[in-house]
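Per reviewer request, we include the raw input and output of the structure prediction for the construct analysed in the revised manuscript.
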Amino acid sequence: KGYLHLARTERDEVQALLNRLTVRAPRSATILQVNVRAGEYAMVNAIEPLILLGDTETLQVRADIDEVNAPLVVPGSPAVAYLKGFTDKAIPLTFDRIEPYIVPKRSLTGENRERVDTRVLQVIYRFERPAFSVYVGQQVDVYIERSSNPVGPKGESRVDSASHRNPVDGAPEGKEQ
């Protein structure tokens, strides 16, 4: 009986250690990136996530709107996205929400004329997976339709009626894909 009790105790200790060392996802997701390998020390305070998870079934685009253009954004405005370099492949977008807090711009496209000290309003759009390949984190050009007659502070028209589309840079949210 003593050996049986000892064996069960050792089994329970090993199971507790295994449970402590097992990595579990907080929810069902796709592994997008692994930044740690077997045998490496996994820092708790790592700047980069050790494992990046994402929902690849619900696809979204996070469009960064420069804060000077934020008053022109109308919730529910139709939009379309194009992969960088593929202007013949349009992706129709469905308005999801506006994150009403202006934040410093973090998604940089690398273009020479891009301002890096700007603040942006983030508008989230959903889209169905197109017939061609798109990847989480891939940058796209987003064109949001402007209302034909936004009104200024004194009631004057701010945009002429011939101006229908307003280009903005957007980037899918690996955080919220």
